[in-house]
Design brief:
With 246 residues, the protein is mainly α. The protein has eleven helices and no strands. Helix content is 63%, strand content 0%.
């Protein structure tokens, strides 16, 4: 019997202890576990914050210092507790936190910002600048660009996970042929896709259906890692739709 991609599923009604919920729930884990969870999230989501500081008008060097300094303070102190109104979603928390940090930044020396020049995260600023050069100008405010980059960071991780699963199953060609149809309702010619993959038109449709199910599950899992309540998953997906439609 063939293996269907991603047969295991995210159980409804049993919201997992994700990295963000671990960070928020002090009683659920020790300080080291919480700091590790937050550090992992920062490694994933630093670029939206870097893009935010660049759109605020900071040059690349100052944007790097600010982003690194922000994470230094975030990881060195239990800063999460200071933003209780935003604790439900990592996206909202980080946007609120970076705004507060920038307001306070003028009171700090650079050494204080960088924690005595301590490097908390490895930021590939050269690559970040290459990406920033192509950021759309119609996302003209720092907040709009942050929201766009946040959503795209999650989607990039989802696509990569789907690709890895199909690579693991030896179905890389199917992924390459159908990846452009994953995130939307658009359907190309399944007869042409089937011919390219050496399968029937019906089989091509079934393959896309299964791939979309896997895409949706991975999307829910990635978002679950950034929210503290299961009902927030759907609201975050809806939020993504508004980001891309603006």
């Amino acid at each position: 019997m063939s293996t269907e991609p991603g047969q295991e599923s995210l159980e409804r009604g049993q919201f997992p202890m994700t990295r963000w919920s671990l960070v928020l729930g002090a009683q659920e884990g020790d300080d080291e576990s919480r700091k590790k969870a937050l550090s992992e999230l920062c490694e994933i989501y630093w670029y939206p914050l870097y893009a935010y500081t660049r759109r605020k008008g900071l040059n690349p060097t100052d944007a790097e210092d600010t982003t690194q300094g922000f994470f230094c303070e975030l990881l060195a102190k239990d800063r999460v507790q200071l933003f209780s109104e935003e604790k439900g979603k990592l996206r909202a928390y980080l946007l609120s936190a970076i705004k507060n940090y920038l307001r306070d930044q003028a009171k700090m020396t650079r050494a204080a910002k960088r924690g005595g020049d301590q490097v908390i995260l490895s930021l590939d600023v050269e690559l970040a600048e290459q990406r920033y050069a192509y950021e759309p100008t119609d996302f003209d405010t720092p907040e709009k660009l942050f929201e766009l980059r946040w959503a795209l960071t999650i989607l990039e991780r989802v696509f990569e996970r789907v690709k890895e699963e199909y690579d693991r199953l030896g179905k890389s060609e199917a992924y390459l042929a159908l990846k452009g149809l994953l995130a939307g309702d658009r359907d190309d010619s399944f007869r042409e896709i089937g011919e390219k993959l050496g399968i029937s038109e019906g089989a091509a449709r079934v393959t896309l259906h299964r791939m979309r199910k896997l895409y949706r599950r991975y999307l829910e899992e990635e978002i679950a890692d950034t929210v503290s309540e299961e009902e927030s998953i759907e609201s975050e997906i809806e939020h993504f739709s508004t980001v891309f439609s603006n």
